[in-house]
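Support reply, case 0932

Customer input (verbatim):
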Amino acid sequence: MHTIHHLTAADGGWMSGMLDVFAEAFEDPQSYAARRPSAAYLQRLLAGDSFIGLVARVGNRVIGGLAAYVLQKFEQERAEIYIYDLAVIAAHRRQGVATGLIRRLQEIGAERGAWVVFVQADPPDAPAIRLYEKLGVREEVLHFDIPVQRPTQ
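Our regenerated output:
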């Protein structure tokens, strides 16, 4: 059986385990393992109010993770929570781990006065889409990545 743990500033080791899960599940060690943030950086991130990190554990092993950002809204005094990454290692999928992570995030969102949790999924990722459809309302949107650079003159 797994447990869900909300990461705090003292949980850099668990955060490292979550990065390992993401590197494995997304088959992307370059992004998640090659240039790990310093312990001080992770401590600041986990101590702040804008990031929520959750891990699913079996004993001392991280088997799943969820990284989310709290977006404070300007039009009303409320927040939205964006699930940036969510993954469970293959051997523990289809056991309620991802659903448990999202349910815990919903609780945290309610505690913080958020009005919605949102996430995006890529069309080829059918298991993720089924999970999110089970938990929420599907919206068709387009996503654009705009590079950060100075405009040419």
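We compared this against your earlier run and they match. Two observations from our side: The radius of gyration is 16 Å. The chain has one domain: 3-135. Please reopen the case if you see a mismatch on your end.
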